Structure formats: C-alpha cells, structure tokens
Amino acid sequence: MTAPEPFRFPIAARYAGMESSPLKDIFALAARPDVVSFAGGIPDPALFELADVQAAYDWVLTHHGARALQYGVSEGELELREQAARRVSRHLPTTAEQIRITSGSQEGLFVAAQAMLEPGDTVLVESPTYLAAVQAFSVHGARMLGVETDDEGVVPEALEQAIREHHPKFVYLIPTFQNPTGRTMPLARRRAVAEVLLRTGTALVEDDPYGALSFTGTTYPAIASLPGMAERTLLMNSMSKLMAPGVRIGWIRAQGPMLDTLAVAKAAISMQSSVVDQLTVARYLEVCDLDAHVARVSAVYRERRDAMSAALAPVLPAGAHVTRPEGGMFLWAALGEGFDAQSMLAEAVAAGVAYLPGWSFFADSPDRSTMRLSFVTHAPEVIQSAIARLGEVVAAHGGR
Amino acid sequence: MTAPEPFRFPIAARYAGMESSPLKDIFALAARPDVVSFAGGIPDPALFELADVQAAYDWVLTHHGARALQYGVSEGELELREQAARRVSRHLPTTAEQIRITSGSQEGLFVAAQAMLEPGDTVLVESPTYLAAVQAFSVHGARMLGVETDDEGVVPEALEQAIREHHPKFVYLIPTFQNPTGRTMPLARRRAVAEVLLRTGTALVEDDPYGALSFTGTTYPAIASLPGMAERTLLMNSMSKLMAPGVRIGWIRAQGPMLDTLAVAKAAISMQSSVVDQLTVARYLEVCDLDAHVARVSAVYRERRDAMSAALAPVLPAGAHVTRPEGGMFLWAALGEGFDAQSMLAEAVAAGVAYLPGWSFFADSPDRSTMRLSFVTHAPEVIQSAIARLGEVVAAHGGR
C-alpha cells in the first residue's frame, strides 16, 4: 500500500516557480541582528511623527467613528481625495474627482496593470527599474523591455525607437530619485520624453513615491504636468515614504473615462482601502505640516547620503560608477567588469553588511556588477563602518 | 481645423464596457435619503463596538507605534495570524503559518484567483452566488458556471456532473447563511459535497464571512474541516461582518505549497495589508470578547429577520418563494413567473424602498423574478413600513 498523493492546488502559470524568491532569501539574511542592512528601502522609524499619526487616528475614531468602521467607496473617501488633489495641484491642476485611492503604490501599479494589460502586451521600463512594478506587470502576462538610461534617466531616442518597434501598452517611469538608481530626470529630459510620448501616442505610468524627499530644495514637475501629458498619464503617489509605510495609502491621478475603469478594477481587487486609514491620512494631511516633516526627514537622509557617498568613494574599484542622488532613498553602484554583486553577497553578510544585488532590477540584460544601497535606515557612523567592511569584501573580490 | 482627438487609455478586455454598472446606479439610487435601502449588506453602525476598536488602535499606537507604521510582511503580522488560527481551530486545527492576511474577503478572493486561474478556466459556483466573487474570478478570464441549488445549497449530483463535464479549476461555495439566498448547507449536504470534491480531485474555495452570525446558536463546521478537505480548500474569513467593514481585514486558511504562492500573489497585488489595522484587529481579538459581540449583533439581526419575514409573507404573490435564513444578513425572494425585479425597481425606489435585483447574482441563466433583501441595516418598524410599500409595488405589477 502506498500513501495517497497529497493534493496539489492548481497554480497559474504567472506564479509557477515563484514559491520562493532569491530576494526573499536576501531579505531574510539581511534581517539578521548582526547585519547592517542597506537592502530594503526602510524608513528610519525614529523619524515617524508617531504622536501626530496617533492623534489623527484618535480624532477620526472620536469624531467619525461609525463612518470610519463602515464600508466606503472604491474611489476612496472624499476628504482624502481632496487632500491628495491639493498636493498634486502644486504642479498639475487636479480635482478630487481625478484621484483614486489605493492601498499603497503597489496596489496602484497593480490596478493600472489590471486596467490596461492583456497577456502578450509589452511594457517599456527604465533599465534598471523598480522590481515590484515589474512583478505587478509581469503577472498580467506582459513582456517587460528595459530601455537604455543614462545619468539623466531614460534616453529619449532609445525610448522612441523602442516604442516604434514594440508598440508598448504603456511606458513606466520613475523620473525623480529613481528606484534603484537614485537618478533624476532634469526638466529638459522630461520635456524630451514627453515629446516622444506625445508624438507616438503612448500612455505613461509615472511613479513618484520619492519626489518630495529632495536634498537640495529643488522639486521637479511631474511629466504628467507637461503640456498634453495629463490626459495620457497615470500619476502615482504614496504616503509610504512621506508619512508611514504601515498605513498603506497611495493614490492615482488620472482623467477621463479611465477613472471609472480604475474604480471598477479597484473594486474587483479589494473593494476599497481601509476607511479608517483613509480618513486618518486625510486628517493628518489637513492638520499636520507634512512639508515640514518631509524637510526634516530629507535633512537626515541627506546626511546619510553624504556619509555613504564619502565612505564608498575610497573603497570602490577604479572602474566603478556610483550615483550621488539629490533625494530619495537609494544609491546605485556599478562595480564594473568582472564583479558579481550576487556572488559577493554571502561574504558581505558574513562581514555584517547587506545590499540588494542589482540584477533583480533589470527587466532584461542585467548588469550583474551592480548593487542598490539604501542610505536612509542607519545613522552616519553605522553607515561608515559597514561600508568599510563592504569595501574589504569588494577588494578581496576584485583587487584594486 | 478640427480639435485633436482626446487621448484614450488602452483598456484591457476584462474591463471593457464596465465603466458603469447597473448595480452602481442601483446603489446610488438606494443611497437617497428618502429611500429605505435593503440593497447593500451594510452592518448597522449603531452596533459597532466603537470604544473597543478605538482602544485597540490606541493601544497599538502607544505600545507598538513604530512597528505599526513600518513595513510588514506579505503573509501578515504574526499576532493577527495567531488570533485567526485560534478562531479557525475551533473547527479545523490551524497554525499561524497556515494563515494569510488579506485586505478583506474581496482581496482574498482576488488573491485566490490570481494564484490559480488562467484565461479560459472554468469556475463552478452556486446558482445564485456572490456577485463580487464572480467579478474577481471573471476578470481573470474564467468562465463562470452556475450549479443547481436547492434549499440545502448546491446539489451534489449536479455538482459532480458539472465537474466531470467542465473540469473546473476550483469550486466556489458559501455554505453558511449564503449571499444572496441566506441558505445554509446542513452537515449531511456538506459531507456529500466533500465526497464529490474528493472523488473528483477538485479544489474548493470556501467563503465564510457570515457563519458566526447564527440566530439559533447553531454553527456549522466548514467543509474544509471534513476529512480530507483541509488540503484542498482555501477557507476565507472576514472581520467585516463581525467587527467592522471599514478596517478591511480578512484571511485565507490554507496548507502546503499554496501558502507560498498566496504570499507572492499578495505581494504583487498590494505588498501587505495595513500594519496598523492588522495589529489593531489582533489586539481587539486578544482582549475583546468577539463572541459576545457577535451574539448581541445576531440577536438584533434575528429580530430584523423576523420583522422582514413577517412583513413579506402577506404581500408576496401566491407563487413566490422566500427564504428564512438561520443567520447572516440576507433574505432571498423569488416572486415567480411573470415578475421582473429589475424593471420593478424604479417604482420601488419612487415608493421609498430599494433592494438588489437578483439577476446579478447568477453566473448564467438568471431568474429575473428574484430579489435580495438585506434585513440587517434598519430597525423592525422601518422594515415593516418599507416592506408594506414594496408590497404595493409588487401587487401593482403582478396582481395577487
């Protein structure tokens, strides 16, 4: 007698072989208490305005408790859409009716994919780009193609050629303090990219979770705000990097009939976002000075960027290229020919420091010598000593 | 010169033509202040334990504030998975590792669909069934087939025949206090259905948002808890109907490798559910007596079910069939030959009463004489007078 075969649930092809992921293993390693991790884009919890957030929850439950606990609407609660519209309107005139609330940017990307993508569609992305966006698009059966970038972001000529060759359903860009590179598209490049999209009749998904985290005081207009672009852009913002990731609130700015499709898709996916959290974020945005908070956070992040840049400079090999972001959370190092950041990682972790190997951020043709380093989680002195240890691992691998 | 054509975003076929829905129009009508609406499954906010919920939020932000505002994990926070496992274990031994947290049942259904469905797959559902589940499955390109039901739920012989004929990816059932009919499968029927699923090697998605809302004290074991069924069932629970819909917390109980796929799918869709809400629900379940609360709510709902049943009996036409649910939120009336609940609705709304036409709950072959009436939102005297007005509309349509 043999035991019966255990039942296996049917698994859709989109998730076949994805039961475990190398990234999950990396994050598990990086979470070891003896490791200084630069792997995740994890805000420093010491910077959360906990008292303000707690006061906002308390106010909502005291003054609108029954409503906060009741069903809401798929579009999102009006107060939050008004606050979101007020912020977006700084660069792009926007009404509450043009905002759709999502449970963080990730759900925003997924909703956009649901609304637009068919299996076999092509999506053009920066090379490299945000890996979880690639996943949200890929599970819809889309083919992801990376477009050439330089220090100013996606290269317009390469973008136009790729659009004409591959007819993408949309282009996905993170123009400001990009994840993973930390690069920012200057205004002239934004205009050139907008012209390409207009000329080719292409839709844009513009992801802007970091734009407010500026170290220079300079903020950049969304590509969506350039002439002709608003009607063809889904502009995504998130409160995760500005207020707190744990509340999972973001939004999409859109216009036209697409707004209805986004609401229907959101309803199919999760009905609506937490009404408690939505009303709380609305209250927080109404009574707290988010700009002042973001300025404080940015000042701290800037010091940490400086610490990491300074620590990296002497320990990177001669041919290495490292970005010096003007804002955001991430710095990107390409060690150059002969280095493999993935295979170095075990030694780095043994030395008490972790990063994210860069290969995972490429839709295709990865540069395996790259790594993403988040500079926001740790204090400057912790960064300095951890980067010094990383330098020893790099030196042992490549010589200098 | 002609104005340029406005840009149209590409819309995936799954959402084509869904920009507006007749149901959305119905809910808009039903929300008019002069209308007593039985359309939505809206808990009475007067029954929310607002003070307990507020205390739980406060405790979490006071004692675990930094963690509540930080990123969590896609599987869900451990404390909440432990509390969920404790509840599920009343009928089916379950560990925290076997729980995946979702943003309400709707996201649970969507996650299950993401994990399993390919375009062209068949899903078997009760006829009629919960319409938002149909939508979560349909947008994955699945073909929905309704299986014959009687007063004890899905008919086992019809289920087996449909499985053998159509080879569904899974069967979706709401065995207890079903939406929309209010019907409950007795234990013997559950056993017969389980035998069919075991014999045919079929997976089950078992949705149980209402099971605790019993008017008789009797609760029913999940089909998942019957011999052999745990390994082939995704069991879904929600806090929406028991604690509060606005917090958007539910869970899936599963076992085996599927647990990893569910976590990966959840990460692609929304990364993780609100950590604040998760920790708050965990705290609420730890320190509050949810069973006592549910007993109080059920006693009120029972009175309202009685009021609606009593009011309907004299005003329904001779050939009508109406359910008398032992729990849950909904009652289902089939007016019989010649009635069309959709076309009667405008007159009902004009008379100050709204319901949900039943056609929308059928995956195929709708009985257009049916309507779903939620009895939970209004007090008995409001129910009585509104049903009397509904009776006049029915009488005008069909004579008696």
TrEMBL record, chains A, B:
The keyword Metal-binding does not apply. It holds the Pfam family Aminotran_1_2. PANTHER family: AMINOTRANSFERASE (PTHR42790), KYNURENINE_ALPHA-AMINOADIPATE AMINOTRANSFERASE, MITOCHONDRIAL (PTHR42790:SF19). It comes from Brachybacterium hainanense. The lineage of its organism: Bacteria, Bacillati, Actinomycetota, Actinomycetes, Micrococcales. This is PLP-dependent aminotransferase family protein. InterPro entries: Aminotransferase_I/II_large, Class-I_PLP-dep_aminotransf, PyrdxlP-dep_Trfase, PyrdxlP-dep_Trfase_major, PyrdxlP-dep_Trfase_small. Residues 63-390 form the Aminotransferase class I/classII large domain. It comes from the Bacteria. One of its GO terms (molecular function) is transaminase activity. Its cofactor is pyridoxal 5'-phosphate. SUPFAM superfamilies: PLP-dependent transferases. Keywords: Aminotransferase, Pyridoxal phosphate, Transferase.
